[in-house]
Design a protein that fits this description.
Number of helices: 5
Oligomer: single chain
Strand content: under 5%
Radius of gyration: 16 Å
Distance between the termini: 50 Å
Number of strands: 0
Largest sheet: none
Order of helices and strands: HHHHH
């Protein structure tokens, strides 16, 4: 069985966005001073790295070729984090707001793909597991925001 071209493109976009999130989390970990927040960001970067490899394997299992690299949108997002940190003296609350915004968008993107009825069950299960982990990270980011504000 193979993915449709449309599904293959969606999964490759999701793969890109996981790499983007990994880099964003790494950047956030470099910026913050709070050790618990730094540890959280490093852990999430590792999760997104793992998600990327799981997605690549799943894409290959269905006869498609995974793409490499990061998206232009995410590169702009990381640039915004660089600028924001310069002007706000590493404002952890602002960084957490950006993380939340990114994770909320990720959950929406996962939901869109998971709801596609042409998605094979193995892929649907993988994406559901990853989405739930992202939701958990989103809640953690909200909890951290309360602590740092």
């Amino acid at each position: 069985m193979k993915y449709t071209e449309k599904m293959s493109n969606k999964l490759n976009q999701l793969l890109e966005k996981n790499y983007d999130a990994e880099k964003g989390y790494k950047k956030a970990a470099e910026i913050v001073d709070n050790s618990k927040l730094k540890q959280f960001f490093e852990s999430q970067a590792q999760n997104r790295y793992d998600f990327g490899h799981e997605l690549k394997t799943e894409i290959r299992n269905y006869g498609e070729t995974p793409e490499k690299g990061t998206s232009t949108t995410a590169d702009l997002h990381r640039t915004w984090m660089d600028i924001k940190s310069t002007f706000t003296s590493n404002d952890e609350e602002a960084i957490l707001n950006e993380v939340q915004r990114g994770e909320e968008k990720a959950v929406e993107e996962y939901d869109e793909i998971i709801n596609d009825i042409t998605l094979p069950p193995t892929t649907q299960n993988l994406l559901t597991k990853q989405r739930e982990s992202i939701k958990s990270a989103l809640q953690s980011a909200k909890n951290f925001e309360v602590v740092v504000s």
